[in-house]
Amino acid sequence: MSKSFARPDWDEYFMLQAELAKLRSNCLTRQVGAVIVRNHRQLATGYNGTPPGIKNCFDGGCKRCQLRMEGKIESGASLDRCLCNHAEANAIMHCAILGIEAGVEGAILYTTFVPCLECTKMAITIGIRKFVCLDSYPETDFELLKEAGVEVVKLDKNNISKWAQELVNKYDGSS
Predict the structure, then answer these.
(1) For 160, which of 12, 31, 117, 153 is 20 to 30 Å away at the CA?
(2) CB contact at 8 A, 89 and 115
(3) Does 118 qualify as catalytic in the annotation?
(4) C-beta atoms surrounding 6 within 10 Å
(5) Helix (H) and strand (E) counts for the chain?
(6) Which stretches of 13-169 are assigned E, i.e. beta strand?
């Protein structure tokens, strides 16, 4: 076997899945993807956007996001008025809908941003004790995470970009 053979480690692999999920986001202000994994198996994915049956955010479904894009609301303000479900919440709800016990046996939440307070509370409630993330989020309560014993691992974005670029190169025929 070639010594140059390489593949993503598990954290990179599942973060790439979260990055892929965020491509489905219909939020105007921030695209987020999340994946819940247990024993190296993907249980559920989620991306942020309006609930099913509600006009997509980019079609004017969420007035708060529209006002945010117009500069009438600052980032992080009036979050209680946003109609979009967060990616992490959607992944957790997906588990509930399918009857999957996500939090038992060491499930991991992979998400493109460290979760907000509400999503953190949901993840703690179902028993998730590890978050693997790419970016920070201004509404995260790190004291709560510490108190709950949730480990937060921040991955190097450059490694994820490298693997994504390798995939693109394979489609382009450059590798």
Answers:
(1) 117
(2) no
(3) no
(4) 10
(5) 6, 5
(6) 33-38, 41-47, 108-113, 130-135, 151-154
